[in-house]
Specification:
With 232 residues, the chain is mostly helical. The chain contains nine helices and no strands.
């Protein structure tokens, strides 16, 4: 396969990434729209589910095609070494995030990041219908990790720096941190570090599935933590 997108001029590739950055969260608009407009009838929910999964499938398909044209490979399974490296990097990422969360509390007096606070607000909304909550959880645990890894690791790193090691890791981590809209530098560092570990994992294995698995696991733990906070 020819890596045709790499032949584009820099500004063309930058524009393409910018457009993808603006639209890749489109599936999350559906549950938010249902919540904000109090749409909870069976017909509303049914249309919402079709729109949500249709947008998610479309975005994943588009990003996968661009990922391939940017030079990314898509192996179908992980080797034993890749499983072990995924587990190790994931553990290091979680430990680092936990330490930085404590730092964030000490320096900024935040008990949670702005991103987590936004998710907590959505999940605790009095307007939230159980079916809408399911969409939110599916997006958080499954859809978002796939889309984010395809965009911030698979496409960004291959489209601009296919032959470099550390530069794309740092750029990917920075963009990933900024995408989570932190309101303090210490909370930005939480997402920057997570993005750096995921980018290192991808660059060192060349297998995007390692990142997707680690990211899904991370978001699953985050979702469980949010639910426990809500229940208490």
């Amino acid at each position: 396969m020819t890596h045709s997108l790499r032949k584009w001029p820099f500004w063309g590739r930058l524009l393409l990434f910018g457009v993808l950055y603006l639209i890749f969260t489109l599936p999350s608009v559906v549950p938010s729209y249902l919540l904000n407009h109090h749409l909870t009838t069976p017909l509303d929910i049914g249309i919402g589910y079709v729109a949500f999964f249709g947008l998610a499938a479309a975005m994943i398909y588009v990003l996968v095609q661009i990922f391939k044209q940017a030079g990314g490979r898509k192996p179908w399974r992980l080797s034993q070494a890749e499983w072990l490296k995924t587990l190790l990097i994931f553990a290091l990422a979680r430990i680092t995030a936990a330490v930085l969360s404590v730092v964030n509390q000490l320096l900024s007096h935040e008990t949670t990041t702005q991103n987590d606070a936004a998710w907590t607000s959505l999940l605790t909304s009095g307007k939230a219908h159980p079916s809408i909550l399911i969409l939110l959880m599916v997006y958080l645990i499954i859809i978002a990790p796939i889309l984010e890894e395809l965009l911030f690791r698979g496409i960004l790193m291959n489209l601009f720096w296919p032959d470099s090691f550390w530069v794309p890791i740092l750029i990917s981590a920075t963009v990933f941190g900024l995408a989570h809209q932190s309101n303090t530098f210490s909370s930005f560092l939480i997402y920057f570090s997570m993005g750096a570990f995921f980018a290192y994992l991808y660059r060192s294995t060349g297998n995007l599935y390692t990142d997707i698995i680690a990211h899904m696991t991370n978001n699953l733990l985050a979702a469980v933590t949010l639910i426990m906070m809500i229940l208490h």
